[in-house]
């Protein structure tokens, strides 16, 4: 039996801000308001699972309004 664990890639705030094309303060404001991508908070440090950020971007991008 193997104990291999697949860990998601965790992005830091700078990487996510660059990916989104926004300043760090904009990302921090979105997170503070609960409107930003899913994240983990470890004390003062935020980490963003890469797959969750990609899904969040996809969810924010819509050409039609969902009812």
* Beta fraction: 5-15%
Whole-number tally of structural domains = 1
Gyration radius, in Å: 14 Å
Helix content: 40-55%
How do the strands of the widest beta sheet line up side by side?
1-3-2
Please tell me what the overall shape is: globular
**Straight-line N-to-C gap:** 47 Å
Structural class: alpha+beta
| Helix/strand order, N-terminal first | EHHEEH
Largest sheet properties: 3 strands, antiparallel
Contiguous low-pLDDT stretches (5 residues minimum) are: none
Structure description:
With 67 residues, the chain is α+β, with helices and mostly antiparallel strands. It has one domain (10-59). It has three helices and three strands; from the N terminus they run βααββα. Strands 1-3-2 form a three-stranded antiparallel sheet. α1 crosses α2 (24-33). The longest helix has 11 residues, at 50-60. The protein is globular, with a radius of gyration of 14 Å. The mean pLDDT is 90.
State the gist of this model.
By secondary structure, the chain is α+β, with helices and mostly antiparallel strands.
Helix and strand layout, with pairings?
Blueprint lengths: L9 E2 L1 H8 L3 H10 L6 E3 L2 E5 H11 L7
Antiparallel strand pairs: 1-3, 2-3
Helix pairs in contact: 1-2
Characteristics:
67 residues; three-stranded antiparallel β-sheet; globular; 3 helices; alpha+beta
């Amino acid at each position: 039996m193997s104990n291999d664990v697949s860990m998601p890639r965790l992005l830091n705030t700078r990487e996510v801000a660059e990916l989104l094309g926004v300043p760090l303060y904009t990302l921090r404001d979105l997170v503070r308001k609960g409107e930003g991508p899913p994240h983990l908070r470890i004390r003062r440090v935020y980490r963003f699972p890469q797959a969750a950020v990609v899904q969040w971007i996809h969810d924010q991008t819509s050409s039609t309004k969902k009812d």
